Structures
1.
Amino acid sequence: MDITGKQMPTTSVNNCGNYRRHRNRHLQHQHVMVRTEPLIRNSSLWVNSGEADPMAARFPGIDSTDFLDAITGRTSCRRCHRSRKYYCYTCYELMDGLAGRVPRVALPVDVDIIKHVQEVDGKSTAPHAVIVAPDRCSVRTFPDIPDYSDQNAVLVFPAPNARTLQHLIDDYRHDVGPHPDSAVDNGSVERADKQLPFNRVVFIDSTWRQTNHILRDPRISPLLANRTVILSEHESLFWRHQRDSPRTYLSTIEAIYYFFSDLQHILDERDGNGGHNDHRYDNLLFFFKHTYNKLRLKYNI
Ligand SMILES: [Zn+2]
């Protein structure tokens, strides 16, 4: 099947006894019968990218999600007993039988995802991060959040004074000096320029209105002053993209992925390993890819 939708017939030719009559009718309406454009080119649900398999091309490090296709029914979550398919988006736990089969991703710092209590759990991609990187990622439901004012944290948010990751790393290196071989960690000496200027990164997973409400909270507002990071531009493949917003509005899991992917790229360049991408963070998009490809087949595009 040509899932790009190009020249994809919408019906088969009728070959019964009335074949000629059907064939003539078919030929008369061939311009209708043979679709040359994608079924859906641009909607709030989908943007056709015109590529054969955009996820595989961009993120070759994502493990095969085929075994998820074999799961047809739902099971009860061990903790909350709600009916779920792959994972519980309330408890952030995999369903029985999937533990050990879903990839794990090692992240260099902790990740807090703040969602507003009014957000609909099942529609967010934030649980994807907790499922594949449970040691590092947590979802915090506002207003039940930690006090970030005294933490070595950065907030990913496009504030007017937000720095890019590159600027943040460069400023830090400038502040700590070129060769400070003094930082001691776990008994071994590490150069401080191999360290990061933060040990926690905070994402907000909410509508704009709720985000403004969260940002005014005194436990998080100090991060706005000089601890915000703006991501470089990346095209989103999110299916809930809003028609009037730019394609660079990322879903939460895409934002987390690009934060760490860009960070790794900057560190590799700095260490003289530029140009080599080991795709170590691709599996953050494991469930994203599965849903993306399911919708891609469902809508024949
Ligand atoms: Zn549950």
2.
Amino acid sequence: MMFFAAAFLAAWSLVTATCAGECPSGGEEDAVEMLQAHLTHEGRLHEDAEIRGAGLTDDPLCEILRNATWPTGRVLCGDAQMQTYGWDVYNQECAGLTPRFLLEPQTVQDVQTAVKFAREHQVNISFRGSGHTYDCVAFKAGSLNIDLRTLGSNVTISYSGGSATAKMEPGVNFAKMFATLPSTLSFTHGTCESVGVMGYTLHGGWGATTSTWANESIVEIEVITADGELRTLNAANQGNEAKLWDAMHVAASSFGIVTNLTIQLFNHSERSFWFLPVLNSFDYLLSVLPDETSFGWIGLARWDSVFYQKNTILGSGWFLQIVLKDDSMWTKAKAVAWIMSKLIIIGITYQSPYSFPSSAETWDLGRYPFQTASVFTRFYPRTEIRGAAKLLEGFFAQHAADCRYNLGPIQGTAPRLPLVTVECNTPSSAELLKQFVKENSNVLQPNRPGSGYIKLPLDGSSSYRQAYFPQYAQLSATKCIWDPTDFFFLENGIHPSGCDSARAEPVKK
Ligand SMILES: Cc1cc2nc3c(=O)[nH]c(=O)nc-3n(C[C@H](O)[C@H](O)[C@H](O)COP(=O)(O)OP(=O)(O)OC[C@H]3O[C@@H](n4cnc5c(N)ncnc54)[C@H](O)[C@@H]3O)c2cc1C
Ligand SMILES: *[C@@H]1O[C@H](CO)[C@@H](O)[C@H](O)[C@H]1NC(C)=O
Ligand SMILES: *[C@@H]1O[C@H](CO)[C@@H](O)[C@H](O)[C@H]1NC(C)=O
Ligand SMILES: *[C@@H]1O[C@H](CO)[C@@H](O)[C@H](O)[C@H]1NC(C)=O
Ligand SMILES: *[C@@H]1O[C@H](CO)[C@@H](O)[C@H](O)[C@H]1NC(C)=O
Ligand SMILES: *[C@@H]1O[C@H](CO)[C@@H](O)[C@H](O)[C@H]1NC(C)=O
Ligand SMILES: *[C@@H]1O[C@H](CO)[C@@H](O)[C@H](O)[C@H]1NC(C)=O
């Protein structure tokens, strides 16, 4: 048994630790070309003086913003300069939301200046991290858009009493964290390496390899609020700041712009993740999928367009995702024994998947962006998850070329419930998915309080608000305190309601 397990594992080492979850597909080349009206990365790095001198747009505010952030901020205005911006977004539709001004700040002060400028001149504001959303909430047409990545992407690890924290800047994505952390430390992260850590952690953050939310690891937040002030938030805050601290854990982008984030790290190495192509049918796999096992957690995924070249689907196209509880040989052997005992047939002729995009630069290689994106992700009680999973698979089976499917991994009796996800990336399949969810709302319960995880909505509307913000009323009251004019407006975010009109401006402290 042990010998078999070792041989088996050697054969499969290639397919571990890849990108799971709702990841990208290959070859949307025409979409990429459209976005590559932008220049190359090098092409973007004009001399500031050149940009400033060439600022001959007829927008009078452009020069005011440029002067105000001079010499550290770089401001693009007008069509010609906007063309030079590398969008680096997941959903091509985001690139249609052309801003009026685009600021690449180098200092926190630049961002504060931009906030004050936008308020004073009544320009809408938007701000982006890694641009890895389905619904383009980081962009608004006609706005002043701040590309927070130019603030930096340093990660500083600190040790205190044997426990470790990581303090990071807004440009950090998961790839950067993996590259920085020693193998003895880990954190809750998503599955696509190009997702921004701040955008993820500040809105919840679900990960396949841990059973806690990423937001539970937040130790400190440095944030610029709607009044342009820079504040430091942590668990020691009292009063209104304590309310802001709470809100920043689930709906941060409705409340402020985070310039530095500190998280607690786990004092153990990352759990191993196996990704095994199997020949069995979905129905069979679902019937043997346990809530939990002694060796770890199991889930199912199918992303034909990601894992296979055209017309090369292996077996049933389904993948078993196994998260091991530790790396001992005994645990691995138990996982292999489970696979054999359930008569699961592994697709052994399978080659390693394509390499996955891990940074904005690699997005240009043809994986991103998708034409569009629409995602349905919901948590279900363990008694309901298989029913919802089967129903959604019925939809997915009709659209496997344009959509991707992910179930679990189901994480046992952990308080966080198991989830199922379907993502579609063509306008027609995305629309059909929305209709399907609506028609099957009795089973899928799209608006059940707390059943969705934040920032994975079906669209940019607030129609399923309860799923993401069961504590909406409380967040709305906090919004009244900190952003009563809804300066950080997001359609599917938090809005002030019933505010005391005497409080037209956010209170200081
Ligand atoms: C393919 C894919 C896979 C994903 N997988 C997972 C997953 O496994 N688990 C999970 O939980 N989520 C997952 N997500 C969702 C992802 O975590 C969120 O979309 C996240 O908000 C992305 O952050 P970003 O910086 O990459 O994106 P952006 O589009 O740049 O930002 C997203 C939002 O966060 C705000 N934001 C970004 N930076 C800051 C900041 N510094 N301060 C304040 N607000 C900020 C933006 O304004 C915007 O509203 C996935 C998304 C995609 C597209
Ligand atoms: C911007 O700065 C330049 C150089 O100092 C100055 O000549 C110009 O008048 C300023 N423009 C505005 C609108 O303040
Ligand atoms: C600013 O945003 C609001 C809310 O979306 C919108 O109604 C308004 O038209 C926007 N203003 C401009 C100038 O784009
Ligand atoms: C973030 O914090 C680090 C460490 O305190 C600091 O060196 C860095 O300048 C900060 N970066 C930003 C963008 O605030
Ligand atoms: C942060 O990164 C910059 C380069 O982006 C580097 O010059 C600087 O020294 C780094 N700061 C720290 C504290 O690591
Ligand atoms: C972290 O793990 C190491 C090795 O496993 C152990 O020696 C140390 O005490 C742990 N630290 C804390 C704070 O748990
Ligand atoms: C973390 O995010 C999840 C998902 O939105 C939420 O249910 C939970 O309450 C958040 N935790 C904290 C500490 O805010």
